[in-house]
## 1
Amino acid sequence: MNGKTTKSSHKAETEIPLEALLDHLSELCTQGAPEQNQTKDQDQSDLTHVSVGDIIHVVGDRSFAPLLMLVGMLLVSPLSGVPTFPSMVACVVLLVTSQMLYGRKHFWLPARLLNVQVPCEKLQKALCWLQRPAAFVDRITMPRMTVLVRGPSIYIIAVICLAIACVLPLMELILFSSSVAGAVLVLFGVALVTRDGLLALFGYSATVITIWMIVWGAAMMLPS
């Protein structure tokens, strides 16, 4: 009985359709933040902004893969144009991946980061922009080549994501590079959520492209 319960709860934590996740996030701006995440001076009717903590609450503090997938999607979306947003994403990925490698089951993020406010207008625009790609990904993904998304492979992916987080603030200076880095996070996140090893292979390929863009951008910025 306990084994079945553990297995079913693990499945519920990992197999999350992208469209459903986007719908849950959209509700933050239409129904307000969850009551347990509101501050004393935050009113339920104030829907102009949502906090990073509210977004994390929707995803869950035990869901490494969905969180990785989500921050990557937001980094690819028009939200990447918001000043310092890539750096904020880098902080989230850095903290989460380091704790995942350390073996923690629940993620901890500092209150200062959780209280960062994201404009609802920009969040809704980003979620609408992501709806069609999310529907497409939900249709084409399936469990395959699972050896690439299980066991030691998960830690390899985590190390790559951690390395990307370390250089992401610098990538704000290189045109389109942060979006490519976001695509890497999305590919690895979706691969882990859907147990699709083929997407993990695409993630490794996108990592190579990201490294090339960083090297090329650094070379362009050096004085001739």
Note: The mean pLDDT is 76.
## 2
Amino acid sequence: MSGAEQVRQQTARSAGGRIDIPELYATWWRPMIRLAVLLVDDVQSAEDVVQDAFVALHRRQDALKNPDAAVGYLRVCVLNLSRTVLRRRQVSRRHLKVAEPEQTAGADAPLLLSEEHRQALAAVRRLPRRQREVLILRYWSGLSEQEIANTLGISTGSVKSNASRAMAGLRSTLGELA
């Protein structure tokens, strides 16, 4: 666990050792939104996912034996709820054959995201789910291999192999575009 994360977790506890949900929300809402956006590729769905994760934490705060585990609990909730959103999208597309409404980019989108970034994000989105999750948690959320393993419920060796395969896949995909 990084020093910055330890400090953030300390601010999430009240004096009585219980979880300080308002402080946790103020500190972790934005990083959790970023994580969810990368996983579900939709800001509105990401906000719903994070809100649902905080509601779940609020409901289960008495069951958490260690208040320091609240951030990890939130991260796992965001990951699992994001998977649920993606599964529901797949089911609705497959069975209802209803196209999602087209998303129009904002007028400032070209300024915010260069072509190279768009290609890199598109390549990440084409990776298998586990590889994509490992890369997002490692490079966008800045988690260690152990933290990723705990979040995904896999071994650190699996984290390393998925990261290696994902990077090889990205090199291959992005090399073809060059």
Note: Residues 109 and 118 are 10 Å apart (CA to CA).
## 3
Amino acid sequence: MRILRYLILAALLVLILTSYLSYHIRNETEQFIYDDINTIPKTYTALVLGASVKSNGELSTMLRDRVESALLLYHRGKVNRFLVSGDNRTTNYNEPVAMKKYLQERGVPEKDIFMDFAGFDTYDSVYRASYIFEVDNAIVVSQRFHLPRAVYIARSMGLNFYGYNGDRREYELESRNRFREVAANVKAWLELLINKEPHFKGDKIPITGKNN
């Protein structure tokens, strides 16, 4: 029985700590996250975080909404460049290329699109945006549930990043995504604590507009 009590207490402690961390991240970032495109500050770059791509190369619903939201920022003069960051784990799976193709099909010139093929998770995407592409002023585009963590990582790195809500509908498995964020928040906090480096660094590819 004593072991059971310890396990229950440990589970309660984990629940309290993870809940507090989620609250802390939301509280720290809320002022930097925007639903209204008219009020979001102008930056040079939109950082579009990757999500799943279908086997035929089409963007998933969630990813398409992110790219469409970034495209709206671009047409409204809120950003000048796109940095599409995602997973290129195999030769047959490539999120950045799929996003770039989608943007080009909608009239965005190639010179305005930069690709990060090693954005394996949110931490790597943000870290590499700064380290590889020298972006320190950007709007991160993703769904509302995801933005607090992304902006928290960026702001903790000293980057002037804002978040723009890419929600355009209700999504399947949205409750599961919100639950996963709890664990992802802990992972991000630990990565920041140890100043973790991304899986890959690579050569610098500066996006014009640094410090603008």
Note: Helices lie at 2-29, 61-75, 95-105, 122-131, 147-156, 174-193.
## 4
Amino acid sequence: MLSRLSGLTPAIVILSATLALSGCGYNDFQRLDEQTKSAWAEVLNQYQRRADLIPNLVETVKGETSFEQETLTRVIEARSRATAIQVSPETLNDPQAMERFQQAQGQLGGALSRLLAVSENYPNLKANQAFQDLRVQLEGTENRVTVARNRYIDSVQQYNVLARSFPTNLTAMIFSYSPKAGFTVVNEAEISTPPKVDFGGAGQSPGKQ
């Protein structure tokens, strides 16, 4: 009888430990951690899609010889900065890395908004089918970015609530589940709204301030 009980003891210990971990949110941490990584991968995917469209957009706009070069230069430089900064799933709990990434992507979004706004003053561009197709693709990508970013924000919120709530915060401390950095754009309203462009009157030629 004792030998049977001694044989069951390890199994009981393992079962008890499993139930304890489950009750303290261990499995939830695993699920939400994978969920946030998956959501972040989609954010990066959509930002990369946007970056991939920009070279073709720039080449198309270059065909409009009078187009202001400063606007094109800002887009090119902003794209270079944005693609140079990457945040992997392993560094999602680094607020500074996230802030740098957000700022770079925000600057690119702002530069693109200005380019599209300025293009309204060039009839040849407005009539260019390739430009219009790229514009539609960019607008669709921006919508996908918003959806992907919101899904990531929601996933991080669920994860962080679990990491900070009792008793699951004890599990977080034991297994080093630190809160993840959120994704916020301080001037999102400004970035999302194309700037007003004033060329000083209808009689002024396009591309001149």
Note: Residues 61 and 67 are 7 Å apart (CA to CA).
